[in-house]
Amino acid sequence: MWNISLKTVFQVVRFVTSIIIARLLDPKDFGIMGLATMVIMYADNLTSVGFNRALIQRKDITETHINSVFTVNLSISLLFTFGIVLFSARIADFFAVPELRNVLLVSSGLFVVSTCYQVPMTLMKRHLDFKTVALTELFRGLLQSFITLFLALSGYKYWALVNGFIVSYVLSALYILIKVQWKPRIRYNHAAMKEVFSFGFWNFLRVQTSEINEYADKFIIGKFLGPVFLGFYEKAFSIVAIQKGNFTVQINSVMFSSFSRLQSESNDTIKKYLKKTLSLISLVTFPLNAGLAVLGDHFVLVLLGDKWEPMITALKILSGAFVFSSLSGLCSSLNMGTGDYVKQTLRECYGNILLIIFCLVAARNGIEYVAFGVLLVYAIVFFMTFQITRQKYEVKWTELVESIMPAAIGSLGMLACIILLEKLFLAEINAANFILLSVAGGLVYLMIIFLPRYPILEEYRSSAIYHMKNIVSRLTAFSKG
Questions:
Q1: Last residue of some domain: 162, 197, 232?
Q2: Full-model pTM
Q3: What is the pLDDT of residue 142?
Q4: For the chain, which terminal residue's Cβ has fewer other Cβ atoms within 10 angstroms, N or C?
Q5: Which domain holds residue 7?
Q6: pLDDT tens sequence across 227-262
Q7: Can you give the pLDDT at residue 129?
Q8: Are residues 282 and 417 in the same domain?
Q9: Is the pLDDT of residue 166 over 70?
Q10: Who wins on pLDDT, 434 or 191?
Q11: Is 372 found in the same domain as 330?
């Protein structure tokens, strides 16, 4: 319980600091950082060649496997560091953003830092020590927020974003190395690498498809529309993706490890875990995305300010896209964790081809059209991903609908409540109306999902009631004391 409370406090702090930072900096600053992140993070994911996840997926590993993977990753990281240094000027010229060159030069050392960060994090995930993983990621995120905020207040513009990212990454790498007490060793064993190569290779391709999916739209916007419009799109995307980074990705990471350990279990057992997790994910992501879709204008104008108004339509469209993304991520974790990495990778490759085509066609018309293309592709990828799951584990479409139905009904009721209140009483965009609409919609959602006795939610309902009673009893005891 304390861990959940700690996460909640951290995320609230990060959210508040991100709002302040958005008010202090300009869209172009976020666009420059978006281009740098795209180049550095995509290249960084190339360095692991998929071997980190192979260490999780294999049933048995030794220190030889771990050191060999670290050595290969480190060697590739050094190559990419030199590559970025050599080609930083050409990359900046390609996007017609001169400021990008120095940002890439400063950020190039992150490849080596990432190698020292990712291997111990992989070991923690393999040992199912998700508490350490979560606390490390929370520490990194909170540190990044405060450093960026301090530098933004000091007038450093886009360098506030860059240095906040770099310093937090370096300190987090040092923290996890000390915490795990794993010492990096440069040792290579060819036989050990061959054992992880098969999964690592296909996972590498799958990671590349995920990275293309993550950055293709931003690459095209940065090239054809420039850093300002990329800043608008990047901010819209990052707001919608908060739930993904802070909840969905963590759930999927846990379930990938869990599904990997359940490979020998029956289909019914795996199906049971899938349905329960689908229900949990939908309970959180559906109302958040629905709320952004209907209150996007209030959210942007009240919290971020008028200068961010051009992102409103893209924000609303992307909130729909992330409904499909939240569901396909879990199905993908199941498919990859239980050995269907070839089929899953190929489906995501098809999705990326469609994404690139849609974005190239839409880019010159504005970020709203790109966002709509992303929505279509995410929907298609979900249906292709679920088809793999359905065929292997005999999951019916009706079972999928049953799992997400409470959250879907609750979200529709919430939308109806917000739209009705906005039309009749709270049409003006201001902070008071934004709060009232959000609270009213949230209460309606909670009543719809928890008052009826949905069988699939009974465990969550009982847990929520237990914790609420516990909190009330503690508050009562505290007031008497």
A1: 197
A2: 0.79
A3: 84
A4: C
A5: 1-197
A6: 999 999 999 998 888 776 566 666 766 666 666 666
A7: 65
A8: yes
A9: yes
A10: 434
A11: yes
Of 80-84, 272-276, 446-450, which gets the smallest average pLDDT? Answer: 272-276
Contact residues for 413 (Cβ-Cβ < 8 A; gap 6+): 444, 445, 448
Q: What is the pLDDT of residues 455-481, one digit of tens each?
A: 656 665 565 555 455 655 655 555 555
